[in-house]
Amino acid sequence: MRIIFITLKLDIVVGGGANRGLDIKLRSLQELGHDVRLITLFPELNRLPAEGVPYPIEEAPAKNRAFPALQQHVVELLKQNESRADIYHIDGATCLWAGGMYRMEGGRVPTVVYLPTYMEALNLLTPESPDITKGIVPWLHFHFIINLQWLKHWSWAKFVGLKYARRLDAIFADSPVLGENYARFGFPKNRIFVMPEFIDSSRFHIDTIHGGPIPTAFGAERPLHLLHAGRLLRMKGVDLLIRAVAGLRRSGRNTIVTVLGDGPQRERLERLVKELNVEDGVVFAPWKEEGDLAPAYAACDAFVHSCRFPEPFGRTILEALFFGRPIVTTIGSGSAWVAGDAGIATTMGSAEDLECGLANLYDHPEKLATMSAAAASRVSYFTHRTWTKNLADHLTSLVSPSTR
């Protein structure tokens, strides 16, 4: 089967998890014998390892990146490549509309979209607003502009975009939570299918680095070691975790958290640590390459992802599960679905409830041990080779028998 993938960019050097997931997806489908190729729209943003990649990458730079022009650029691209493709796979929410436009205009090649995040019209992402302590006027202006932009995106998507979305042959969401939010907006529920992010555990050297057993008790000599890894954004809720750790330490529960990553919230978070007087309980560390994260995962007693929005998937959750680490995340997030019985979920946006959840685990480490034991079976559900076959089977079912 000839599969052409369309994406904005491929950065598997310093890019986010979606970039690495796309790389694994392409490699895995190629290993199954499919003819895969990738077309990037913003090729100047591509960053590849020195050894390159085993699949072909073509460049189709979009000269005009304004929303309407970009969609039309992709439509023309799909029309031009019809003779080389049995099916199109559009990666990401930015150009999902183009796939529907192409089909509505008579495009003959089945077209699917993979959604690892929310479109702006859903208004579920938490913006990085200016620091209100530095002036109320810039803060008010920022939120006025953000709400105006959201209204524009919502109106277009609701009254124009949905007619295109309903022409897509399939919509893959990386978790039930993500799919439910798109369906609630009006996307065709019967064409939304769960397709988790592709993660290859071999990249973490698990064969040589293992997560140690959970301690039977925590105290002055053995603190509870927590880990958060990811970009430091407000929607990730690291400030909630820091407040929870401060509360735990005030109550006499010896807890230390390592915050691994960088981002626009770094300065505010460091200031919060000083304000709460927990400098000895919070350790900031710079982001590491994917393969270098293993020691951090293996060393923690629990991985905490206190997101204050319905996180679509939470790639770091699955990475932590590879090492048998228990998960603490939030109710209503895709992260809670990923963790399953290997985690607990607390109220979204509540530092107090997060503190209560962590305090309970501190006082009852046997619960951590139970979740750690459940991690292995939960990880097995996300085996990327199994999902590669599921994806290939689904794509094949959409292709005309005469072209398979």
Write the layout of secondary structure elements.
Layout: E1 2-7, H1 17-31, E2 35-40, E3 57-59, H2 67-80, E4 87-91, H3 96-104, E5 111-115, H4 136-165, E6 170-173, H5 176-185, E7 192-194, E8 224-229, H6 238-250, E9 255-260, H7 266-275, E10 282-285, H8 294-299, E11 302-304, H9 315-322, E12 327-330, H10 334-339, E13 343-346, H11 351-363, H12 365-381, H13 384-398
Query: What is the SS-derived class?
Result: alpha/beta
Number of strands: 13
Helix count, DSSP H or I runs of 4 or more residues: 13
Shape: globular
Terminus-to-terminus distance: 6 Å
Fraction of residues in β-strands:
5-15%
Describe the main β-sheet briefly.
7 strands, parallel
Helix-residue proportion: 40-55%
Unreliable segments of 5+ consecutive residues? none
Order of helices and strands: EHEEHEHEHEHEEHEHEHEHEHEHHH
CA radius of gyration is 22 Å
Biggest β-sheet: strands ordered side by side in the sheet: 3-2-1-4-5-6-7
Mean pLDDT over the residues: 91
List keywords for this structure.
alpha/beta; 41% helix; 13 helices; seven-stranded parallel sheet; 404 residues; six-stranded parallel sheet
Architecture overview:
With 404 residues, the chain is an alpha/beta fold. Helices cover 41% and strands 15% of the residues. The protein contains 13 helices and 13 strands. The strands form two sheets. It has a seven-stranded parallel beta sheet, with helices on both faces. It has a six-stranded parallel beta sheet with strand order 10-9-8-11-12-13, sandwiched between helices. α6 links the parallel β8 and β9. It is globular, with a radius of gyration of 22 Å. The termini are close together. The mean pLDDT is 91.
